[in-house]
Amino acid sequence: MPKFRVIHTDPDLHPLDDTLLGLLEQGNAEVALFRSDEKQFPAGAEDADAILNADFKLTAALIASLHRCRIISRFGTGVDNIDVEAATARGIPVANVPEFCSDEVANRAWTLLLACASHLLPADLSVRQGEWRSPKIVETLQIEGQTLGLIGFGKIARAVAKRGRAFGMKLLAHDPYLSLAVAQQEGATLCDLETLLRNSDFISLHVPSTPDTHRLINAKTLELMKPTAVLVNTARGALVDEAALAERLQQNLLAGAGLEVFDLEPPSPSNPLLLSDRVVLTPHSAAHTKAALGRVRKSCVEAVVRVLSGQRPIHVVNPSVLEN
Known about the structure:
Blueprint lengths: L3 E5 L9 H9 L2 E5 L7 H4 L5 E4 L6 H5 L6 E4 L9 H6 L4 E2 L6 H16 L2 H9 L18 E5 L3 H12 L3 E5 L5 H6 L2 E3 L2 H7 L2 E4 L13 H6 L5 E4 L8 H9 L5 E4 L19 E3 L8 H19 L16
Parallel strand pairs: 1-2, 1-3, 3-4, 4-5, 6-7, 6-9, 7-8, 9-10, 10-11, 11-12
């Protein structure tokens, strides 16, 4: 019996250990490695039975070239780099791994929040430059008793809220899909977006990237925020108008920003946010703990093995394709 062909588009980011390669081998599958700079991907993938994918951009054109593909399985939760509509049109299920790193991302959000509140980067640089208690270091921000606004209130946001309660913070939540009872159970006050932006001292983003959330944080919504507020984004870069954010920071109309994600990844060297000492940046790496990486790789591979053996994947973002 011929082996199934599985193409792995991000082997450097997600190398597969012997255990995972063994799972694929037991499922009569062999893995071919492709990297994002390989122009022959469409031709090479034409006869693939499955795609293991992380950050590689799977466009409609690339998906159209997949004549035998039974599943696209992503190492992660978000699928904004995959044209799901095109996959659905071809009857290809797109599997993801939701909630594999909720605590890790919540920890990163708090790392960024604390770093911004304490002006950690300027303080660190001051010490390294031999300036002890430099007058250039402004007063740090109070956390206890302040208001934390959470835009989106899923599992990660609730983990951030739990940490906020430990710091004695007041919690506001905005989520059109959230019930009042759930918000109250988590100690948060449910409110509209404008109320949250106007009243929060720290704002943390936890919504997916969709047409409705594109540039959710823009020039107009930034104007609603307190000039002493801090914005934290560990969700998706497309949620924020980075030029508007940079301008707001430059005008001293926002205290700081902590960014784990960017509209363009990696960010362009000309991105003005890279030049601001009010911004703390991390390279979309919150989930890169040994435990979280182990979970996401195992789940991603298992989804492929299930489909190639005639079973349904557990997590699918376009479940309508399974009806056929």
